[in-house]
Write a structure and sequence with these properties.
Blueprint lengths: L26 H26 L3 H29 L4 H19 L1 H7 L3 H22 L6 H21 L4 H25 L6 H32 L4 H22 L11 H32 L7 H27 L4 H13 L7 H18 L7 H8 L1
Helix pairs in contact: 1-2, 1-3, 1-8, 1-10, 2-5, 2-10, 3-5, 5-6, 6-7, 8-9, 8-10, 9-10, 9-11, 9-13, 10-11, 11-12, 12-13
């Protein structure tokens, strides 16, 4: 049955069915993800540069803030699309505007890292957010029982953008204080909106969207790390240590993929509290996946003598993202689907990887630990979260 269209060939943005069978990511959503990963890649490159120059605190703070802008724009679009995607020409156009905004944001990342100049990033971020405001306002016209929620989203996001623009007029010290407040305000908008009337998000669709973005981020990290290793080999550096790094990179990426997709994610997107925790918690998972390549590249630079980092610190540059990724997914998803053994092995493995640089054989040990975690996941199957399943597994 065809949707009714207006004389402008627009489809009303009716709320989507949260139980719609066969709901999958659209080609527009996949295109959206690919464009956003461009910005993540550039942020990772700049983090790598600041790590090499031993500007650890500055690099981490800049990366955290830049990644927040990328992640929050991505997640807000994803959450709105699962409830109100119409895929008509205006919807596509407003989505492409958001994609253009993230590309402009990407062009300002280097200035943010090197000169603390966030003007381009803030302006591009506001463009993306205003395009989403237009989507929420359009959805409110046919949102039915969720109109209060869609209106709250539109008004709340618009008001916060005014303050983002005003923050550019502040001196440096006041700007950073304003950033903290504005990040909190951004995070508060969905909480306020969903408490008024929950939008009809689709758990399976959201789980697929988050999983696909994770795959793209892991692929980007693998590609960037491989390029760094290949470049070092072409420069005539010793192949032995670089081959060990290459093996480590493949093992790590495969293990993170295995951990992430071991258990189904849709049960964690159930109710306001769990769903917001799942979405917000993915900031750390996504940021860790994006930062992994920076850590691997820092390790390569230490091996080839092109870094000011202490070797132990360089090793922490890749073990911290690994540990954050694993602990994040364990907290958000795995611990609810795992028995007692997995709920010990997975977090313990993350902690052991984290402290790996303090042990004399970091490469081999990290690979062994992650292989052991994966082996445990192969041996144990996820529970279906019934009391009977938990009792039989823990027995």
């Amino acid at each position: 049955m065809n949707e009714p269209t207006s004389r402008f060939r627009l489809v009303p943005m009716w709320p989507r069915d949260p139980d719609e069978a066969g709901r999958t990511a659209s080609s527009l959503e996949l295109f959206f993800d690919l464009v956003f990963v461009v910005a993540v890649s550039i942020a990772s490159v700049q983090l790598h540069h600041q790590l090499n120059e031993a500007h650890l605190f500055q690099g981490i703070v800049n990366y955290a803030l830049v990644f927040f802008g990328i992640w929050w724009a991505w997640m807000n679009f994803t959450w709105s699309a699962t409830s109100f995607d119409t895929d008509d020409w205006l919807y596509r156009l407003l989505t492409i505007v958001q994609m253009g905004g993230v590309l402009v944001l990407a062009s300002g990342i280097q200035a943010a890292f090197e000169d603390q100049d966030y003007a381009v990033i803030v302006l591009a971020y506001v463009v993306m957010r205003i395009a989403l405001v237009a989507q929420w306002m359009r959805a409110s016209r046919s949102a039915g029982d969720t109109r209060r929620s869609t209106t709250t989203y539109a008004v709340g996001i618009a008001v916060v953008q005014v303050f983002w623009l005003a923050s550019l007029l502040l001196p440096a010290a006041a700007f950073w204080a304003a950033v903290i407040a504005l990040v909190g305000a951004e995070l508060a908008v969905p909480i306020a909106a969903e408490r008024r009337a929950r939008t009809p998000w689709h758990p399976h669709h959201l789980a697929e969207r988050f999983g696909l973005f994770t795959l793209i981020l892991l692929g980007e990290s693998l590609l960037a790390s491989a390029n760094a290793i290949i470049e070092a080999l072409h420069e005539g550096d010793r192949p032995g240590p670089l081959i060990r790094v290459a093996v480590l990179t493949l093992v790590v990426t495969a293990a993170l993929w295995w951990v992430y997709f071991w258990a189904p994610h849709h049960p964690a997107i159930d109710g306001l509290g769990l769903s917001l925790g799942y979405g917000y918690g993915h900031y750390f998972v996504f940021a860790a996946a994006g930062a992994l390549s920076a850590g691997i590249e820092a390790e390569v630079d230490v091996i080839t003598g092109h870094s000011e980092l202490d070797p132990v610190v360089a090793s922490f540059a890749y073990t911290v993202p690994i540990a954050v990724f694993i602990l994040g997914i364990w907290l958000l998803v795995l611990r609810r689907s795992a028995g007692r053994q997995i709920n010990v092995i997975v977090p313990l493995g993350a902690v052991l990887v984290l402290v790996d640089p303090l042990i004399p054989i970091p490469f081999a040990l990290t690979a062994v630990i992650l292989t052991g975690v994966v082996a445990a996941l192969i041996w144990q199957k996820p529970l279906t979260n019934t009391p009977q399943d938990r009792a039989s597994t823990n027995a």
